[in-house]
Amino acid sequence: MLNIFIFVSVSLFIVGFWIYISKRKHLMNMLISLEYMVLSIFMLLMLVTFTLGLEMYAGLIYLIASVCEGSLGVGIMVGMVRSYGSDYVSSLSSLTC
């Protein structure tokens, strides 16, 4: 039963990584897939801590770091939309005029 949960969490991470690679046109799609990958890693971390009987503070610290990462990404996206007018990743390139 434990192997099924580990397989599910790893496959969720792989799906999130595939979406991150394939949907790299918009910044919002990239941020959503990053949060998806963070949640799949959190699920794997909680599964490991439950089975080994470790403390739960590692999961809390991981969630705090992931929330900070998400809010930083949304802040960068809002700043980019206000200055460039869209959330296209191609508008971030400094080589284009």
TrEMBL record:
The keyword Mitochondrion appears for this protein: yes
GO molecular function, one term: NADH dehydrogenase (ubiquinone) activity
Catalytic activity: a ubiquinone + NADH + 5 H(+)(in) = a ubiquinol + NAD(+) + 4 H(+)(out)
Gene3D superfamilies in the cross-refs: 1.10.287.3510
Localization annotation: Membrane
GO annotation, cellular component aspect: membrane
Keywords: Membrane, Mitochondrion, NAD, Translocase, Transmembrane, Transmembrane helix
Family label: Belongs to the complex I subunit 4L family.
Protein name as annotated: NADH-ubiquinone oxidoreductase chain 4L
